[in-house]
Specification:
Blueprint: E1 2-4, H1 24-30, E2 34-36, H2 37-40, H3 44-59, H4 67-78, H5 83-95, H6 100-110, H7 118-130, H8 150-162, H9 167-177, H10 184-196
Antiparallel strand pairs: 1-2
Helix pairs in contact: 4-5, 4-6, 4-7, 6-7, 8-9, 8-10
């Protein structure tokens, strides 16, 4: 039996700070529709409990759908003796994931299955596109072997014969030993030392 909910002018239909929030009776009065008699007599507690139950159901989404596993199972039904698919299935069960290259191989096999659901293929393709690409870094360019400066080595050797503890000449010798070329200023400095120390 349905009854018309009467409008009341002294109650607010919208929650406010004065009423302390949600008011079940005013919410029912705000929508003047034909409702069963049992709904009209719901208490605030019952409305609150039903709203909390709906909220809890919305939060509990249930188990997530594992598209990769479903695609693997469908492919194994279509190609039961494929060693590649068996290997993928075992790795997925053991590790819980497949690499991007493996997923691309699985996508290639799954696209050949006529009974494969198009939504699963699209989801698998989206998973593949979302994964990062891994590239091996290129080898560094070969280091050019610098030719040794024979003139500078002769100057350093002749200076160190006369003055074996000369610090600047020792520094320039260590630079030559590590295959570093001397700058024009350093070469001029060596020539100047050679002229002065003759």
């Amino acid at each position: 039996m349905a009854t018309q909910v009467p409008k009341s002018s002294n109650k607010q239909a919208i929650p406010s700070a004065q009423t302390g929030g949600f008011d079940g009776e005013s919410a029912l009065e705000a929508f003047p529709v034909c409702l069963p008699l049992q709904v009209v007599h719901l208490t605030r507690f019952a409305i609150f409990n039903s709203m909390m139950a709906i909220f809890a159901l919305m939060q509990n989404k249930g188990p997530a759908v594992d598209v990769v596993n479903e695609v693997l199972e469908d492919c194994l039904l279509a190609f039961p003796v494929s060693p590649l698919l068996i290997s993928f299935y075992q790795q997925y069960q053991r590790r819980g994931f497949l690499t991007k290259k493996q997923l691309q191989g699985l996508y290639g096999k799954a696209s050949k299955v006529p009974s494969m659901h198009h939504g699963r293929l699209a989801t698998l393709e989206a998973i593949i596109k979302k994964m990062p690409d891994r590239f091996k870094s290129e080898l560094p360019p070969p280091v050019e072997v610098q030719e040794k400066d024979d003139e500078a080595e002769k100057l350093v050797a002749s200076l160190l014969e006369r003055y074996p503890q000369h610090k600047r000449v020792l520094y320039l010798k260590s630079k030559l030993d590590s295959n570093d070329l001397l700058s024009a200023a350093e070469l001029a400095e060596l020539k100047r030392f050679h002229k002065l120390l003759k």
